[in-house]
TrEMBL record:
<feature type="transmembrane region" description="Helical">
    <location>
        <begin position="416"/>
        <end position="435"/>
    </location>
</feature>
<dbReference type="InterPro" id="IPR011701">
    <property type="entry name" value="MFS"/>
</dbReference>
<feature type="compositionally biased region" description="Low complexity">
    <location>
        <begin position="196"/>
        <end position="205"/>
    </location>
</feature>
<protein>
    <submittedName>
        <fullName>Macrolide transporter</fullName>
    </submittedName>
</protein>
<feature type="transmembrane region" description="Helical">
    <location>
        <begin position="350"/>
        <end position="375"/>
    </location>
</feature>
<feature type="transmembrane region" description="Helical">
    <location>
        <begin position="83"/>
        <end position="110"/>
    </location>
</feature>
<feature type="transmembrane region" description="Helical">
    <location>
        <begin position="293"/>
        <end position="313"/>
    </location>
</feature>
<feature type="region of interest" description="Disordered">
    <location>
        <begin position="191"/>
        <end position="240"/>
    </location>
</feature>
<feature type="transmembrane region" description="Helical">
    <location>
        <begin position="325"/>
        <end position="344"/>
    </location>
</feature>
<keyword id="KW-1133">Transmembrane helix</keyword>
<feature type="transmembrane region" description="Helical">
    <location>
        <begin position="42"/>
        <end position="62"/>
    </location>
</feature>
<dbReference type="Pfam" id="PF07690">
    <property type="entry name" value="MFS_1"/>
</dbReference>
<dbReference type="GO" id="GO:0022857">
    <property type="term" value="F:transmembrane transporter activity"/>
</dbReference>
<feature type="transmembrane region" description="Helical">
    <location>
        <begin position="261"/>
        <end position="287"/>
    </location>
</feature>
<feature type="transmembrane region" description="Helical">
    <location>
        <begin position="387"/>
        <end position="410"/>
    </location>
</feature>
<keyword id="KW-0812">Transmembrane</keyword>
<dbReference type="GO" id="GO:0005886">
    <property type="term" value="C:plasma membrane"/>
</dbReference>
């Protein structure tokens, strides 16, 4: 990983990821708690979770744009937009106009802006590192995501109790300005492959194949065919792609995934993400019964911390059979998650509850990194932005609906019911991977040469 960190473009992109993730963590925790604090209603927390997660289902619409637009402009522009949106909360408070509806409007706008950030980073990453470094690079990015989440989720929970949620938004605004400056210095090399070579890799039918050499994302050449620095200053289109309509580009990304193992993976993820969305929506009320805002921050830190640990160890398990890893991993996750809920019924066991919660997320974090590396190493360069955004949208589309249902159920019954359901869903996911031959027989990431079934 030291070699990666000596790579200047990667280092700047990585640092930008660290800072913007810190901002994301703070505003999510602050906003979710602020809505619950202003209303005292778990159903409103569920609505907040729905509005925050719903834009992720639209991420597939951003993929064709990311493949066409200048990557640097996407990365910098999104941070500036988020800065403006975040500032609206403390300004409204200063004017005596702060309300739950305002927070509920700002949250989905922030989330919608974020749907451009991660596909852009995904598209840039394989262009600045070699193929054999993708697992390590994705591990570092996941460490940035989950590690920062773990620290800042916990910090946000503590600071809410000390200085209040509104003050956190002022601090948060600064992080987006810093991230914009870091992304402004990212230089992404021009694409190393032409569209003709990419087309040859997918075949005439557009079926997945394995590209030769490092996988690169589209967008390295401008319309004249001259190379640019690519760090967001390229047009994001080359050759025939410049003539493709937006809908054609979008359809191409969707068509690529048909008949691939990714469809099976996404089906399982949808069910679990629905249950997970419901559990997250119930967490403010659940944590309030265990100690308040500080405990809520600790829960969210446990989720991120567990996934952080999993991402850290992903490179050590990349040679394991992927199917077997997920069968065991999800089964262990579900068992530990349910143990955490059971421990919460014991007096003075909050520390144990949080610890079990964190360990349950370790296999999930490792699996996420390996899936990202799998897609980046096989998907042709010109389709990477589109394909990654389609996968992200499909897998996360159930989260907002889970949040909405979870808030209502938590208010009508008990938040613990949603936590139990999430644990059971993880156990079921392990069983699903064992029951589907295509998933069960998946080889290690390094041995996988195609996504075709």
């Amino acid at each position: 990983m030291r070699r990666l960190l000596r790579n200047v473009p990667f280092r700047r992109l990585f640092l930008g990821r660290l800072v913007t993730n810190a901002g994301d963590s703070v505003y999510y925790i602050a906003a979710m708690w602020l809505v619950y604090d202003l209303t005292g209603d778990p159903a409103m927390s569920g609505l907040a979770g729905f509005l925050s997660a719903a834009p992720s289902g639209l991420q597939f619409l951003t993929g064709p744009l990311v493949d066409r637009w200048k990557l640097r402009h996407v990365l910098v522009g999104t941070q500036l937009v988020q800065f403006i949106l975040i500032c609206s909360i403390p300004v409204a408070d200063a004017l005596g106009a702060l309300s739950a509806p305002l927070v509920l409007v700002v949250m989905p706008l922030l989330a919608l802006t974020n749907q451009f950030v991660y596909p852009a980073q995904t598209a840039a990453l394989p262009r600045i590192v070699d193929r054999d470094e993708l697992v390590s690079a994705n591990s570092l990015f996941s460490l940035a995501y989950q590690g920062v989440d773990a620290g800042f989720n916990a910090l946000a929970g503590v600071l809410i109790a000390v200085v209040g949620a509104v003050t956190l938004f002022l601090v948060d605004a600064v992080t987006f300005l810093v991230a914009a400056l870091l992304f402004a210095g990212v230089v992404v090399p021009p694409s190393a492959q032409t569209d003709d070579s990419s087309a040859a890799e997918t075949g005439e039918s557009g079926e997945p194949g394995e590209p030769d050499g490092p996988v690169v994302a589209d967008g390295g050449d401008d319309e004249s065919g001259e190379k640019t620095d690519g760090g967001g200053d390229s047009d994001g289109d080359s050759g025939a792609d410049a003539d493709l309509s937006y809908l054609t580009s979008l359809r191409e990304g969707i068509d690529y995934l048909r008949g691939t193992v990714v469809t099976y993976i996404v089906v399982g993820a949808v069910v679990v993400n629905f249950a997970f969305g419901a559990a997250l929506a119930s967490l403010p009320a659940y944590a309030d019964g265990l100690g308040g805002a500080g405990v809520y921050g600790a829960f969210m830190a446990a989720v991120a911390g567990g996934m952080f640990a999993g991402a850290l160890g992903a490179s050590k398990v990349k040679s394991r059979r992927f199917g077997r890893f997920n069968i065991v991993g999800f089964s262990v996750s579900g068992t530990l998650w349910l143990a955490s809920v059971a421990a919460a019924t014991t007096a003075n066991a909050v520390a144990l509850v949080i610890a079990l919660f964190a360990v349950a997320m370790v296999p999930v974090g490792a699996g996420n990194v390996l899936i990202s590396a799998l897609v980046q190493s096989i998907v042709p360069d010109r389709l990477l932005g589109r394909v990654s955004s389609v996968i992200g949208s499909a897998a996360s589309a159930a989260v907002p609906f889970g949040s909405l249902v979870g808030g209502v159920v938590a208010g009508a019954t008990s938040p613990a019911v949603l936590l139990v359901a999430a644990g059971v869903s993880l156990l079921c996911l392990g069983g699903y991977w064992a029951a589907v031959p295509t998933l069960r027989r998946m080889p290690s990431i390094s041995e996988t040469e195609t996504l075709r079934i």
